[in-house]
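User: Second chain of the day. Same drill as before.
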Amino acid sequence: MKHIPRKRFGQNFLTDQLVLSQIIRAIHPQSGEVMVEIGPGLAAMTTLLLDALPQMHVVELDRDLVTRLKKNFPPEKLIIHEGDALKFDFSSIPLTPGRKLRVVGNLPYNISSPLLFHLADIAGIVEDQHFMLQKEVVERMVAEPGSKAYGRLSVMLQWRYHMELLFIVPPEAFDPPPKVDSAIVRMIPKAEVLDCAQADLAAVVTKAFSQRRKVIRNCVAGMFTEQQLTGAGIDPQSRPETVALEQYVNLARMLTHSTS
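Assistant: Same format as last time:
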């Protein structure tokens, strides 16, 4: 029975075999690795991954798809976690000593940003992440200071990960075709992150990018003085999208110090 893609779950199923092969080559699964796929859908990528893996985990919200997965894969081969990936505790997946989690998936566009932030909380137990996302989102993730795409998502994720846009996937590779291009991104957690409190960095960045057209002095007025901005290595007349990650980290440290 054909599964009808559900709009509320943001379902666009990848069907192009050449693109699927390209993604598998990028992931390069190896026997013995602990792999979890978010939103396996009709299992196009799952099936190819299991050619290299004796077992893997998947997180799937759609009950109809869960039923289909249970029917098509033995439980010792595919461990299915039924539920919302935004609420799923990825740290609950068992890891043997010395192993880290590899995370893959064609992420629903409507929850991509909150899901990326949810996963950032477990970056310490993750080896790498390979995701299909809306091309515009990936461009924001990897954007450098000075570009229009650089913003809150860029700073917060670049603080935790090395990221690379691998290749673009056109709409016709999916059923149904989305209205936008997609892209594959590789995310590797940094061995060492710049030392600052995540909550304070998030507060600074959210405030800074709340009024992009204004200079940063005006954006963070009430949080930092002009003298503090200069002390963090920032020109008060510069715009938020030109301020580097390291400078935002400097501000986060100042915020922590001022509230402690």
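Strands lie at 13-14, 34-38, 56-60, 78-82, 101-106, 126-134, 161-169, 174-175, 182-189.

User: Great, on to the next one.
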